From TrEMBL:
NCBIfam families: guan_deamin, PRK09228.1. It comes from Jiella mangrovi. Gene3D superfamilies: Metal-dependent hydrolases, Urease, subunit C, domain 1. InterPro entries: Amidohydro-rel, Guanine_deaminase, Metal-dep_hydrolase_composite, Metal_Hydrolase, Metallo-dep_hydrolases. Transmembrane segments: none annotated. This is Guanine deaminase.
Length: 442
């Protein structure tokens, strides 16, 4: 609590491009100040002007010459997959069976879930990520551990207990009833505590029976404002599996539509091999696709088609998908997204990418009025970035001519070493000069 001010090169984006398909509007102040009161941004303006007006006694943290941006938002990752990142040689379905499910079995132990939650949230902070949408495991304790730790740190986090009742080891299976009851209990305990939100989280159609999808449908109907997260159309073998398991379905998306899971705040991870019908159905119902480039490349899943999504007005977020994904860095994630789209003959401009990492991902998650922008009334979750953090970046910066070139180089060459500091509700949760010495998190 109290008032503080942060000075730096302020960078923020409007919620949406003024014109569909156009670049988002950038708000950049070369020397700016963000004033924060009780964790909320109360003023954003020109540094010299705001500084003159600030009451004496208000601390100004001067981060010049670094960039000050809204904290990054990662709309798809898995708490229990830190230790399966870089497991060699399999596509999705085999990767799940061989590496991921055995690892997730460990999370029935609350000590394992607690330690992993601390590690994940420390690592996100070090990467400048202040909000994420997380899959825990099917164990209630994994979700309880994650929510408890996120709340202790005062973070805005969205997470869910995974619902899965078939096609996985017995120790990972819940039942339609227990998945329903446990999700409901989590909602009652954690939803709305601090900045936490519970997401209804059926893992994906292959691991849920129709009875379980019915239970997810009941939860979705009981809690119409709640986020939903699942996976959709990531891999060809997965799609064939769904077609066989749900013989009545027109396509993969139809399964989720049938169970009332396609709606605003529903986040569909991957969405690579969608038909036009499916893309339009997602768009028309206000759901979002989440592009996970490092995961899609690592697992050989395929190349996301951003132009096709934009053509039908399907909003797209971009995420790490740890641990199918290989980097916690949203800068690296954007860089790999750029390369995926380049292979599709599409381009991701720097302003579009940084918009996606902040205001765009916030909008996809339905929290675009709370985080993702440097605006009065927004929560003061910030990342401070050094665009000269490594030798290649410093060398490149000697040639850049504009902000957009500078940001593009930061996105392609930058990583967690660019994070100078991270703030949640105006409280510093990461500082690169403390890293390795003493944790800043409470
Ligand atoms: N589909 C269902 N579960 C998973 C998962 O854990 N990771 C990825 N990448 N895809 C999935
Ligand atoms: Fe995933």
């Amino acid at each position: 609590t109290g008032t503080l001010a942060i000075r730096g090169r302020l960078l923020s984006f409007d919620a949406d491009p003024a014109v569909e398909g156009e670049a988002p509007s950038v708000r950049f102040i070369e020397d700016g100040i963000v004033v924060i009161r009780d964790g909320i941004i109360v003023e954003v303006g020109e540094g010299p002007v705001v500084a003159r007006r600030l009451e004496a006694g208000i601390a100004v943290i001067d981060h010049r010459p670094h960039l000050v941006m809204p904290g990054f938002i990662d709309p798809h990752l898995h708490l229990p997959q830190t230790q399966v990142i870089a497991s060699y040689g399999q596509e999705l379905m085999e990767w799940l069976a061989k590496y991921t499910f055995p690892e997730e079995l460990r999370y029935g132990d609350s000590a394992v879930s607690e330690e992993a939650s601390r590690f994940l949230l420390d690592t996100l902070a070090a990467n400048g990520t202040t909000t994420a949408a997380a899959y825990c495991t099917s164990h209630q304790v994994s979700a309880e551990a994650f929510f408890t730790e996120a709340d202790r740190r005062g973070l805005r986090m969205l997470a869910g207990k995974v619902m899965m009742d078939r096609n996985a080891p017995p120790g990972l299976l819940d039942t339609p009833q227990s998945g329903y009851d446990q999700t409901k209990e989590l909602i009652e305990t954690f939803h709305g505590r601090g900045r936490l939100e519970v997401a209804i989280t059926p893992r994906f159609a292959p691991t849920s029976s129709e009875a379980q999808l019915d239970a997810a449908k009941a939860l979705a109907a009981e809690y119409p404002g709640l986020p939903i997260q699942t996976h959709l159309s990531e891999n060809k073998a997965e799609i064939a599996f769904v077609a066989e398991a749900f013989p009545w379905s027109k396509d993969y998306t139809d399964v989720y539509e049938r169970y009332g899971l396609v709606r605003p705040r529903a986040l569909f991870g991957h969405c690579i091999h969608l038909s036009d019908r499916e893309r339009s159905a997602l768009a028309d119902k206000g759901a979002s696709a989440i592009f996970c480039p490092t995961s899609n490349l690592f697992l050989g899943s395929g190349l996301y088609d951003l132009a096709a999504s934009r053509a039908v007005g399907l909003s797209t977020g971009i995420a790490t998908d740890i641990g199918g994904g290989t980097s916690y860095s949203m800068l690296t994630t954007a860089a790999e997204g750029y390369k995926v789209l380049a292979l599709k003959g599409q381009k991701l401009r720097a302003f579009e990418a940084f918009h996606m990492l902040t205001a765009g991902n916030a909008a996809a998650m339905g929290i675009g009025d709370k985080v993702g922008r440097l605006e009065k009334g927004y929560e003061a979750d910030l990342v401070v970035l050094d665009t000269h953090s490594t030798a290649p970046l410093r060398r490149r910066m000697e040639r850049v001519q504009s902000l957009s070139e500078e940001l593009f180089a930061l996105m392609i060459l930058g990583d967690e070493r660019a994070t100078v500091a991270t703030y949640a509700m105006g409280r510093k949760i990461y500082d690169r000069y403390h890293a390795g010495h003493r944790p800043l998190a409470p």
